[in-house]
Each structure stands twice: as C-alpha cells, then as structure tokens.
Amino acid sequence: MDGNAGQSANSSSDFVRKLYKMLENPQDESVVRWGNEGDSFVVLENEKFTKHILPKHFKHSNFASFVRQLNKYDFHKVRHNNEEGGASPYGIGAWEFKHPDFKMNNKDALDNIRRKAPAPRKPNVMPEDIVPTQQMDLFNSQLVATQQQLQQLQERYNELSMHHSMLLQELIGVQKTVVNHEHVMGYVMNFLTSVDAQRRRESRVNIPFGSHTNGAINGVAPEEPAERRLPPTEEDVPASPLQHASKLLSEVNADHMLNSNKLEQLNEQHMRMNASFTTPPPINGTRSSSRGAAPHSATSSTSVSYGDLDNMVYPIGNNQGIDPMYSGHIHNIPYVEPPKASEPSLQQTEGRKKSSAVDPGWSRQPQILLVEDDQTCRRIGGKFLYAFQCHVDSALDGLEAVNKLNAGSKYDLVLMDIIMPNLDGVSATHLIRQFDHTPIIAMTSNIRSDDIAMYFQHGMNDVLPKPFTKEGLLSMLEKHLGHLKKHPQPPSLEMNPPHPNPSAAVAPAPAKRSYRSDDSPATSPATVSNWNSPGPGPLGVSPVSATAPHPEDPYLQGGPAPYALGPQQGAAGMPPPPVQAPMYAGLPPGGLGPRPPQPQQHQHQQHRRGISDISGGQPDMGDAKRQQLYGAPPGHMGQQQQHGGMHQGGMGRPR
Amino acid sequence: MAPPTQQADAKSEDGSAGPSGLPDFHGDIDPDTFEQILEMDDDEEEREFSKSIVYDFFSQAQQTFEKMDQNLEKRDLAQLSSLGHFLKGSSATLGMTKVKDSCEKIQHLGAKESADGSKDEPDEDKCLESLKKIIKQAKDEFADVEKRLRQFYEPA
C-alpha cells in the first residue's frame, strides 16, 4: 500500500496528498476527521483547524483559501439542510467535504482527483480576469509611451520653433546692423564725395595757375593746354573710385533688401501659422493686393495716387515694402504669441461692454508707450488707447521713456509729448534713436511747420496734434501699426520708416534749428491727426492734399550723391538714409545742392490747410504770419533749452 | 481752437445737446472734445472716469493758478510761461477752450512775446502787466467752467 501510495503520490496532486495525510493523523480527529462513511471528510472545529492544522499541512491559516482550493479540486461541501432536518450529523459548525474519489483507505483513487480545468498552475478563474487587465496594462503603457513621445516631440518642436524665432530675430538684428553700416558707408561716401568735389574745385582754381607757371618755365606751352583740357571734362564727375564704391554700395543694398524681404515673409508666415492654431479665428490669409480700404479710408483722397504708385512699384522692386530696420518686426516674432493669444478675445468681450470701445482688429495687442507729464492728457490718452485694445505703458517724462526703452522694453509705438520736465520729447527721441527704431509720434500742441520739421529731424515719425481726438489717435495707430492688423498689409508701406540714422541725420541740424518752443498760433487746428513726414521716407498714407502729391520727390531727385540714384530711387518704402544723406550733407558746404527747407515749408502749409479742411475747421489764418516766423533766426533753440531748464526747476506739479 | 468754439456756439444756438446728453456749456467747453471723454465713461450715471479726470484737473488748475500768483510776485516770467504751457495742455485736452486760449497767452507773455506769440516783447514790465490781466481772466474763465462742470456732475 505504502509503495502504491508513494507511487500514486507522484501522480496525484500535492494538495490532495497533503489532505489525505492530514486525515491520517489521529491526534487531530477532534478537529478534522474522515466522515462516518469514509467517503468524505469533516472539519469539526473550524477555528482550531484554521489555526493549528492548516499551518501544519498547508503552510497557511486561511480557511477560505483552503475551501477555494478544495473547490478547485472539485470537492463539494456536503449540505445537510434538506436532509435530516437540516442539522449536520457532525455538529452545527462542522464543514463536510466530499469528492467521489476521495475515500478513506483508497489512496489509489487520489490519482483521479484533478483540478477541475486542465489549465496549468494558474487557476481557471484567473485567465478571464487577468488576461484583459494584462492587455489593458499593455495598452496603457503603450499609450503612456506614445503620449510621452508626443510630448517630447511637442517640446522639441516648441524648442525648435523658438530657436527658429530667435534665429530670425537675430538675423533681423544682423540685417539691421548691416543696413546701419551701409548707411554709415553712405554717409562716409557722401562726405568723401563732397571732399572730392571740393578738392576738384580747388584744383580747378589751381590748375590754370599751375599751367601758366609750367608753361613759362618749361616752354612747352603748346602741349600743355591739350593735357589740361582733359581733366576739366572729368572735373564735374567724382573720382572714379568713389563712383565705383557708390555703385557697389547700391548694388549690395538692393541684394540685401531682397533677402530681407524673404526673411520677413518667412517671419510673417511663421507668425500666421502660430496665430492660426492659437487663436480661434485664424488670421485671414488673404492679403489684399489692392490695399485700398482700411488705412486709406482713414486718410484723404490723395492716397489714391500713392496706391497707384504702390501697385506699380511693389511687384517690381523686390526691395520695396519692408523696412528691415523697423523694430516692430521683432514683435512679430511669434514665440511670444501663445500666451497672448487669448488676450484679443478677452479684450473683445470687454470691448463690447462699452459702446465707445473700438476694436481695430489687432492680430496682437499693440504695446504703446505713452510719454506725457500732464496727468489729464495721460489719463485720457491712456483711456483712448485702452479703448482701442492697446496695452498702455506710461512714462512721466522723456528721461523715464529713454530709460524704459533702454532697459529693453519693447513697444510697437511711442506717443511722446514734447515739452516735459527733466527731458523733453525731442531730446528723448534723439537719444532713443541711438539704439531703437520704434515709431515715435510727437504729441504736442506746438505744430508749426518748423516745429514739425524739427521733430522729424530728430527721428520722430509723425505728429499727433494736441488736443488729440479719438479719431486722430486711432488713425495714427492704424497708420503705424498696420502690420498688427488682422488683415496684414505689407507693413512698411503703411508706416513711416523710422528715422534711420539719427546721429548722422542730426549732425548738421543745428544749422536748421529754429525751434520756437511754445508759441503755436493762437488758434490751432483741433482735430488734425496726420502729418506727412517731411522726410523723404514713405510715400505712405499721410493725408497730403492733392495739391502736393509727391512732396518727397524733390529730395529723391535732388540728392547730389550719385548712389542715391540707384534702385532706391523708385522704391518708396526704402530706407531713406541714402536719399536723406544728400539732403543733409548738402547743407554744410553751403548752398551746395538743392536745399529743401523752402519746399518743405510749403508742404507743411499745404498739409495744414488740407487737414484743417478735412476737419471741417477753420481756414488757416496764420499762414502769412507763420511764413514770417519760419524765417526766424535759429537762436530759438536756446529758448527751448531754457524751457527745459524751467521745467527742471521743478514746479512740483502733481502728476 | 477757434473752430470748436464756433461749433459750440452753433450748438448752443440750436439748443441741442450732444449725443451724450451733454449740457449746454455755451462755448466754455468744446463739446466734441469733451464728449469723447464722456464716451469713455463706463457708466453714464456715475461718470466715474471723466469725473475723476475733471475734478483732478480742478485741483491741478487751482494749484497752478496759485503758483502763477507766486511767480507773478517773483517776476519769474519763464516759470509763468511754463505754467501757462502746462495748464494749456490739460485744459485743451478737456476741451476748455477759453481757459486754454488764455493759458496760451500766458505762455507767450512769459516767453517775452506778444500775447499771440507773433512777435517778441522784450519789455518785461509790459509782459508782467499783461500777464496779470490774462491770469485774472484765465481764473475767471476757469471758475465759469468749473461751475458748469460741477453742476453737470453734481446737479443740485
């Protein structure tokens, strides 16, 4: 038997053998024993069994799990409820289990006791539960992995696009520098030309004299005149190295502009792409080629002629249209977009609250710096700007404005009062122009033509007469922030390019300075907003009256420097310096070249008249008087400084 | 500032008030300029924004006038000109046409010019004399405007 048992033990289950062995132990009969018929076994005392017997044989003390195990081997609990009046013959707490092949004294039959399902060690119940959860786990981990991958890609993409933006910005910066250098070259060239001209003039004076002495000494007079005759024909022309250099310059310039154009396009695309997935209403990609509507409507009828000009020039001149020096482009760089993307909609809802709020439809909230010492003006101006969905920062005087810009604050537009304590607006602009080209608009009641000429000379881009109106302010914004509109216009066509190289442009200025600080005529046009730049800058959207269609032309054509006649000639939006250089450079030699102030003055008078007509206002009465005043000696500059000093003197006015 | 004044007169003749329910200021205030400030008020009953600006201007003007008096005594023409310019800006922004025009004259006279700024006036005594008159005038004009505006904001 034993041998059999041993044999059978090999083929029978461990559990069953342990079970059988457990029942063979007579000491435990009071706890667990064979049933009365020998075909079942009974657990008499559940508690003792669990605590003492189970650990001994099955290394655990969990009755439930023991029962489960039994079930797996197809043992069944014997129920006595229905038979014999429901009472177990072994007592109330007894558990009787039974298997057909589990019988006392029949070890061989144990071999027949198998787990219910042929499934391997892992029980039957498990697979149904576990396999799905396993799969779920798998899916989950895959999902997580994918998500991580995606996130990584996203991060990588963001990083790359930021780098891209930074590179673009850098590139634009480099371009700016290049352009600046080019301008410097231009000025140097110009200077050289004038020096050259002077030298030639001198030589012209000297040569005849020299030839005489030569002739007298050498006695070869007959031949000399023929030789001498040659140089005079050249004398009107600058030295050939100079010509070469200027030609080179103009060629290089054109090439450069072509590149920057592409770059800007890239930049714009990038921005639009970014905007299209950050803002719900994607930017309307249609670039109106007939760029009539928005900006021009704000201005006067003359813009038509400019429109024609644009249509004519733009497709041909690659170098037209985008001013790489315009620092506003930096703000177009999109990596600052996402956080701001929600702002427009927010602003819009805010705007709708008030009937007075106008939403000019910015693609991005314009950042405006309002420089104004007077609290009243500052608050009202700020309120208007806010109503136009602009973000307003304010500075109390020129010094603060310079500091803000110098500290790296970026603005799309600066509105600058002129007369302020500590540092006046013109000086502030002059300083700012040493390092920044953000459009600066003079905001002042001193709007006489000579004042205005001076504002422009020092690098201001426009004039908003005080007291300004909402409309005037808005049209000024639209004019200079056209690139921030949702329907992008070719930006710089709409705006005055900033005064390019203030230091150079300003150098000869004292000759022209005739600043009368505070005497605007007793009456001033109230609602005027736009002033055309007297500078040769953009044939933009200034409301020049029809009588003065192309005020810049005199400058464009009058420039004595040969290189200015290059490709820039027809290009309106081009960086003005090459053109401007001659204008200023022409001054010091004294009456050399066409001096612009006179025509300029007339333009202003005309603008003025045109504007006051538009505003339905008064006839410009002070014309004759102003003409007179215009001729006033330049000594008035001193006055202005005096005033600055007065302000500085500290009136302790409330701010 | 002549045209607004004319418009204001025209309006007062019509007896029509502006779209913002602007009362008749009889040319003391340029309605167009002032209305666009009123339009900025969120609440047409409270008029918080414009009221605070206008009332701030009142105290600012009061202070400026005091300083003008001090500088009149000190015969500090330059300061007077500067003060005139200062008050000119804010009064113009608020559409207080008459005050603004007077301030401009103060500015000119302080700069030793004729009141309209058309020619130089080197005689300081003359300038000071004119300044006294014009500052008095400006104060009166300001008082008128102030009264009207206080009535507008705080109807009794």
For this structure, the quaternary state is heterodimer
> Strand arrangement, largest sheet of chain A?
6-5-7-8-9
Uncertain runs of chain A with pLDDT below 50, 5 residues or more?
1-9, 210-235, 275-355, 488-655
> How many E-type strands of chain A?
9
* N/C terminus separation of chain A: 115 Å
CATH architecture of one domain in chain A: Orthogonal Bundle
Secondary structure: elements and pairs:
The complex is a heterodimer of chains A (655) and B (156).
Chain A: H1 2-11, H2 14-24, E1 32-34, E2 40-43, H3 46-58, H4 63-72, E3 76-77, E4 95-98, H5 125-218, H6 223-235, H7 240-278, H8 293-298, H9 303-316, H10 328-332, H11 337-353, E5 367-371, H12 375-387, E6 391-395, H13 398-406, E7 413-417, H14 425-432, E8 440-444, H15 449-457, E9 462-465, H16 470-480, H17 491-494, H18 502-506, H19 553-558, H20 577-585, H21 597-614, H22 623-630, H23 636-648
Parallel strand pairs in A: 5-6, 5-7, 7-8, 8-9
Antiparallel strand pairs in A: 1-2, 2-4, 3-4
Helix pairs in contact in A: 5-6, 5-7, 5-20, 7-11, 13-14
Chain B: H1 2-14, H2 31-38, H3 48-74, H4 77-93, H5 97-110, H6 124-153
Helix pairs in contact in B: 3-4, 3-6, 4-5, 5-6
